[in-house]
């Protein structure tokens, strides 16, 4: 039995990497039919596959279209399996992040990828959307009691507003309550350091790892 | 040695470089569009301001002239944004503020299959298109020695500005038929827009396609979509008798061999790409760039002059910023850049 289960998880993981949403659906139904634990199937099958996809993305074997299709396949499986989860998994101790694209910019591909990889890694991610004023990052982070604020931009024209988020946190005396990470095309680690952010990552897979490091958990 | 200083007007110099002829020094330009150089410092000096100048041809002409004279960039570069094409094709635009460039508020279509095709002549009916065409007409007639550059948003970026970008990127792989149909349609519209610009007197077409990077698309889809449709557009511009510049964003590592396949007259790249290496590997390519826009915004005139001298020593064909300028870039920093080139 253990063998079949492991083989099943491996096949699910492979199907994610192969972007095969039909096969993921078929295997997910099989998981339910054979009374395999749904949470375990998500964790060791689907999530594992998505992590491998993230790895391939980092190695430049996969690019954005492939990573998005893997995520779609994963979501197909999650939608089927989630109703069968036995209550234990919706993790109350999950770390929480707010993420958004800073005001002035509506490019959100990068932000969406970071969100995807952070969720895959087990974060609860509140998506503020795009073109978000600096003050709103702070207000939402406070309201959500977030651990982490993630700010993205693709435009050089909006980089200053990233610093503004950190300035507001300082003015309100709550800078220490949140870790702040920044990313996006024109951003560098030098820029992140200059504006006083806690971290910078150059792609989505790295962002997910950085989020874990900053919040003190290691997957 | 023959004294060649001022041998050429700025227009002659740029056109000579774009046709691979010898010049006494490289031109220093900023083509507009994604590389808009209407910075806050300039607008505050003259009172010709954005966002109003996006809509009004007399303001647009005045601002383009201000930018040219105050920054030292040896061209007129219009429009000041990369949203006109998407506006004509149906997307909702937020025109931004004095400091902040226009952006796509909402893409019109959820998927590539949903596109409602418009006739290219919709372009002539759009107010902002007419402001751009009138500006091109005025500037190129009044200042025949200064090149007027018409900037276009590239096919992939325009498509991703009218179709939900996440869906569009998936469809590039998943639904090739509708994706090709969408990008081909967008390219035909861009060709029509280029035609209108050329008929109004534009001297050079510059195309920036920031969504079409190696990092986003990967080498296969970069070739299949970006290179193919950029070339379709560039070939059409060439048939109009006008040279074309193509700007590719990103680190370019994944797609470097493909840039040799681009038909453009010059290749403009981001700051982290070594133009020297590109010149070594592909000696036929005219290079443009690539002074860091972060340097331009945050460092000192002295540092900028030093970096510019390095680019000059590497014999980059056209000096330009590496990417879109921040609107808060200090004018004195841009002057440091252009002065070093023009005072050679």
Describe the protein in words:
The complex is a heterodimer of chains A (219) and B (344). Chain A folds into 2 domains: 2-84, Methyltransferase, Methionine Synthase (B12-binding Domains), Chain A, domain 1 (Orthogonal Bundle); 96-214, Cobalamin-binding domain (Rossmann fold), CATH 3.40.50.280. In chain A, 55% of the residues lie in helices and 13% in strands. Chain A has 9 helices and 5 strands; from the N terminus they run ααααβαβαβαβαβα. Chain A has helices spanning 2-17, 21-33, 38-58, 64-81, 109-120, 134-143, 159-171, 189-195, 204-214; strands spanning 96-102, 124-132, 148-152, 179-183, 199-200. In chain A, β4 (179-183), α8 and β5 (199-200) form a beta-alpha-beta unit. In chain A, α1 runs antiparallel to α2, α2 (21-33) packs parallel to α4 (64-81) and α3 packs antiparallel against α4. The model of chain A has no long low-confidence stretch (mean pLDDT 90). The relative contact order of chain B is 0.14. Chain B has 344 residues and is α/β, with parallel strands linked by helices. Chain B has helices spanning 10-18, 40-46, 57-71, 84-88, 122-125, 127-142, 155-162, 165-174, 176-199, 214-239, 256-259, 275-281, 293-298, 301-313, 331-342; strands at 76-78, 92-94, 103-106, 148-153, 204-208, 244-248, 266-269, 287-291, 318-321. In chain B, α3 crosses α6, α8 packs across α9 and α14 (301-313) runs parallel beside α15 (331-342). Chains A and B meet through α4 of A and β3, α8, α10 and α13 of B.
What is the compact description of this entry?
Chain A is elongated and about 55 Å long.
Q: What assembly state would you assign to the polypeptide chains in this entry? A: heterodimer
Adjacency order of strands in the biggest sheet of chain A: 2-1-3-4-5
Termini separation of chain A: 27 Å
Q: Spell out the CATH superfamily of the largest domain in chain A.
A: Cobalamin-binding domain
Stated plainly, the CATH topology of chain B is called TIM Barrel
The 3D shape of chain A can be described as elongated
Number of DSSP E strands of chain A: 5
* Greatest contact between two chains: A-B, 31 and 36 residues
Radius of gyration of chain A: 18 Å
Approximate shape of chain B: globular
Q: What is the CATH-assigned architecture of chain B? A: Alpha-Beta Barrel
Instruction: Please report the first level of CATH classification, the CATH class of chain B.
Output: Alpha Beta
Integer tally of domains of chain A: 2
Strand order of the largest sheet of chain B: 1-4-5-6-7-8-9
Poorly predicted runs of chain B are none
């Amino acid at each position: 039995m253990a063998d079949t289960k492991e083989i099943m998880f491996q096949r699910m993981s492979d199907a994610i990497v192969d972007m095969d949403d039909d096969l993921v659906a078929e295997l997910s139904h099989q998981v339910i039919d054979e009374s395999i634990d749904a949470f375990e199937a998500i964790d060791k099958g689907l999530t594992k596959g998505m992590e491998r996809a993230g790895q391939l993305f980092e190695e430049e074997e996969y690019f954005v279209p492939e990573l998005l299709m893997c995520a779609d396949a994963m979501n197909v499986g999650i939608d089927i399996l989630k109703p069968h989860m036995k209550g234990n998994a919706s993790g109350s101790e999950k770390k929480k992040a707010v993420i958004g694209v800073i005001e002035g910019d509506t490019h959100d591909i990068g932000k969406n990828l970071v969100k995807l990889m952070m969720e895959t890694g087990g974060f609860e991610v509140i998506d503020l959307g795009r073109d978000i004023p600096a003050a709103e990052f702070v207000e939402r982070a406070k309201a959500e009691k977030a651990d982490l604020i993630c700010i993205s931009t693709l435009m050089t024209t909006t980089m200053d507003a990233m610093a503004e988020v950190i300035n507001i946190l300082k003015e309100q005396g709550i800078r220490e309550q949140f870790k702040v990470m920044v990313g996006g095309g024109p951003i560098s680690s030098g820029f992140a350091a200059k504006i006083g952010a806690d971290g910078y990552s150059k792609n989505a897979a790295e962002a997910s790892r950085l989020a874990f490091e900053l919040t003190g958990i290691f997957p | 040695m023959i004294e060649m200083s001022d041998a050429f007007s700025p227009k002659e110099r740029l056109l000579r470089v774009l046709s691979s002829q010898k010049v006494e020094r490289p031109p220093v330009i900023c083509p507009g569009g994604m590389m808009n150089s209407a910075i806050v410092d300039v607008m505050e000096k003259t009172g010709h301001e954005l966002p109003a100048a996006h809509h009004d041809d007399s303001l647009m002409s005045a601002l383009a002239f201000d930018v040219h004279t105050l920054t030292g960039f040896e061209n007129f570069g219009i429009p000041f944004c990369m949203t006109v094409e998407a506006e004509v094709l149906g997307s909702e635009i937020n025109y931004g503020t004095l400091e902040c460039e226009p952006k796509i508020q909402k893409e019109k279509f959820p998927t590539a299959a949903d596109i409602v095709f418009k006739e290219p002549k919709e372009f002539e009916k759009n107010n902002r298109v007419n402001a751009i065409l009138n500006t091109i007409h005025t500037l190129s007639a009044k200042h025949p020695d200064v090149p007027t550059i018409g900037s276009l948003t590239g096919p992939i970026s325009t498509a991703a500005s009218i179709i939900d970008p996440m869906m569009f990127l998936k469809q590039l792989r998943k639904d090739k038929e509708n994706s090709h149909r969408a990008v081909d349609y967008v390219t035909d519209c861009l060709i029509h827009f280029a035609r209108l610009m050329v008929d109004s007197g534009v001297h050079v077409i510059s195309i920036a396609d920031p969504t079409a990077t190696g990092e986003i698309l990967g080498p296969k889809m970069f070739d299949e979509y970006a290179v193919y449709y950029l070339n379709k557009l560039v070939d059409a511009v060439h048939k109009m008798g006008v040279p074309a510049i193509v700007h590719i964003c990103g680190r370019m590592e994944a797609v470097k061999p493909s840039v040799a396949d681009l038909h453009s007259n010059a290749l403009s790249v981001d700051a982290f790409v070594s133009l020297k290496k590109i010149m070594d590997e592909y000696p036929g390519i005219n290079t443009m760039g690539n002074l860091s826009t972060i340097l331009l915004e945050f460092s000192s005139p002295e540092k900028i002059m030093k970096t510019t001298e390095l680019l000059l020593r590497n014999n980059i064909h056209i000096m330009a910023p590496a990417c879109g300028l921040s609107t808060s870039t200090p004018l004195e920093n841009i002057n440091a850049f252009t002065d070093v080139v023009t005072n050679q």
